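assembly run, all chains below
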Amino acid sequence: MSVRELELDLDAFEGPFDLLLTLVLKAELEPGEIDVAAIVVAFVERLQARGELDLDACGEFLVLVASLLELKARALFPDEEELDLGDLGPEEAAEELARRLAEYRRLKEGALWLAERLEAHADRYFRIGPSPLAPRPERRLAKQDPGQLACALRALAAEPPAVSLTHMELRFPPVSQFLERFRALLRRRSRFDFEASVDGLSRVETAVAFLALLELVRSREATVTQAAPFAVIHVDRAQENADLDGRETSWSARSA
Amino acid sequence: MERPLRLISSNPVDRLARTIEALLVVATTPLPVEELAEAADDATERVETALGLLADRFREGRSGIVLEQVAGGYAFRASREAAAACGRLFERPVERGLSQAALETLAAVAYLGPCTRPEIARVRGVGVDGVVAGLVERGLVAEAGRDEAAGAVRYRTTPLFERVFGLESLSELPRLDNLGADAEEIRGRLEAVAAQRPA
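ok done. output:
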């Protein structure tokens, strides 16, 4: 017998079990509305009608009903609570369960009291309907000084201060400035570190300095080497008869 | 022997009582003393004195109209001996056919104070959306703002709830504070079941 074809007749759903699961998984049916106990009863009745114990079917049914119960439990309890319960040990979980059951029993007692009260008051008839209360007079404001209103208006009418755009302004120092600087450096020393030469400069200035360096490489006044990405960039003064290929290699390695 | 009704009197408290009688006969909801005093344009203490006079005049066994103190105010209702006649002519739409689920949900809202549907569902163990909507339609519960943390709508009982159940205020609900004993008992039962389980 196939569990999936089990015909169900519940308040919230009527049809085969597998369709019910599909609808729940597609969130077209609220898991909270499904009477799981009724599904179990339907399965047990069917099992009894067949007169033989189909262990495969029972196993499959247990797995499906367990997941359905889990979905229903998740749907009924808010997420945060679920987390709380997950953290509880078996001891505390039993405590919490007992507390909830007691709370529910208390609620049932309250409901019973209300039902009895309703019964006891069944012979008291009274008029109900929308209240024909007259509109209440509006609360008047305390006496106000008109000067205050003028003040408030004046404040609103004042020209707002001009918005400063200085923070948006990027100042680019000329590339030539760094070209001069690097050439002067290379005249004094045959090699220097790019990082050290731009130490203390702003991001924009560093970028411009780098453009200047590229310019030096292009005009074959210097060669650039870098051992690894993000490593120190060494700048060397170009040899009088430097091997052009070598320079090209180091340059393309750098740009890659 | 009952003394004869003095319908016309020049006694100022009697005159105030007649005014209050008039206000109460027009009202469809219980009127608090302060509201009566404001409408009658008189002092609260004098209104209370006048209400005492009316309570004696309009009581069970003496009048077909009975003055009752309910839902935080005063209201007229039919006397209980006229219940059968009233029942033949009038419906009781608010309380007719309240299901067990509705009563439990109502108890949850009344006892837990303003509370959200998930909170009620947590205690009852099943979803309560439909039940709460039904109670709102009957006018027994109403929305009362939103829960700040979860953003869910909170519900409270209405003055009509207090009226239908004949409560002067929610503080008249009986205390259900034997919670500790219950928790212990249920815990004991859980432990007994756990002990039977093979290790």
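Chain B touches chain A through 54 residues (CB under 8 Å).

Chain B is about 50% helix and 15% strand.

not gonna interpret more than that til we talk
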